[in-house]
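Interim report, section 4.2 (structural modelling).
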Amino acid sequence: MKPNSCNNWEDYQKEIAGDRYYFARSCIRQNFFPAAEGLFLKIIREIAGKDIYDDDRQTTCSGIAYHSGIIPFDTTMTVVARQFALMTEAGYENFVCSCVTSFGIYNEVLETWKNFPEKEKEIRETLKRATGKTFKIPRNLVHTSDIIYKFRKEIAGKAKLKLVDKSTGLHLKVVDHIGCHYAKIFPEKGIGGAEFPYVLAGMIDEWGGDQVDYPERRHCCGFGFRQYLLKSNRGYSVGNSKIKFDSMEPYYPDLIIANCPGCTFFLDRWQYVLAEMEGKTYGENGYGIPVLTYEELAGLLLGYDPWDIGLQVHQVAVEPVLDKLGVTYNADEKYRGLHGEDLGKPEMPAVLKCN
Amino acid sequence: MEYYRELSNDIRFIEGLTACINCGTCTAGCPAAAMSDYDPRMIMDAVQYKDEKELCALLKSDTIWLCGECLSCKTRCPRGNTPGYIIQALRALSIETGFFAESGQGQKQLAIKRTVGDHILKYGYCVYVDEVDTGMYPEQGPVWDWIIKNKEKILERLGTSYQKEQSGTLRKTSAESLNDLKRIFEETGATKRFGIIEEYSAGVARRLNLDFSADRDGYFYYQYNDNHKE
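Predicted structure of the assembly:
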């Protein structure tokens, strides 16, 4: 058996459709990593050569509101039903969502309808009354990270770089963080289940890096929905991220990748906060540990310009991992507009090194 | 009102409670328990014994608002219980009865309703770039101040559809889609729940002599920032 793996994950496999996807956006990702979803679509269309539909009529799944207790489950089920109706109207059957909270929500709704068919009937009637729409259940429902996992070999085949430190020749040490709702609600819906998820680890293995196995690998990032949404409750969120950083620190990770929009955001921003509050940094030489989404990492390996794929909007500087990978980039372009306009620079934090 | 009977009608409650053996596995792996004295094992115990007095106390307590809904408890319970689902049912009943307004944590629902809830109906999404600043979200850091200062140029550089009526990231959601959401909220009880949250919050604001009008008023900031005074 390979280190850092377990045969148990092999019991948890699922079908991932091979083409013709209906794409659903994430509330958090489009705001805080605004280039990530466009990059995902580009990789699927141009690298994998597949059809994926980006509908201008789609909306939130309402999952953050539901998990925060401000709207009823019936509301979320009906919003989800409307998303399925849009997919049906567009002529697609394979639903892929960009958010892990949404992935949990869509699965939760479908499982509820399996267990309570009368509830599905009721929601169909409600949707019809509210919007005039009808829908088919998706034939295949997956998360965007599942799709990148499915095409990880094709991406590796076209990649210009591997997860290797160009100056030492050593494999980069990569932490994978899986959003709780990817598989903790329904382990059978995730590749590798809840305790040995392989969706990101499979990318690390395929792209030449080493997985980091650390004690709090499966601990929540600390989003906590209402706990983060309220400034007065945010200690919950930063405290749980700190549990993870303290646990992974002795393994000297070069990079963190996450498949959940919220997790990516929190693991990036709470490093900044911990540096400023406690003077603690977790990367080398006063930097943080760079945090990327899975498609941002794929994009770097494929040779996309880091500033075209939005890596300048991370608070933790990504340059340490760019330098290790040997990514060619122009530091002067980092803070420029599309037409080369000088947009100034963000202020530098007092403690966390960012340039 | 019989609280257990009300809870028993909630799908989340039906799916969340089988028979809890009180082993404490849920508490051992719970991120909320790591940060506070929250204990899902105790909640499951209280609920399954159907003690109406105990249930009433829970509905009026801070306790039910401490869970982060990560649902690690669902994965790990050896008997198929989901304390996170029970919390959802308790929170829904706490709002329906108005008991949420009797706990400091429950009162904070107003701030979530006026951010995430109102954003959905205004923008079509729970979060929107125009509503996020480092005053309310200081952890966004100086990079966010730079983004906001140069919003149009940066979002153009990153290939978004910011404020455009077309597909893509951060596009302007159409009036038709927003109307669909509004109608769904009306039909499924979300509009009613928003009304209950506003109504009971107005009562608390009067008691505390805080400005209560709409949006980001004095009561909103009191609940959003820190309501430890009450």
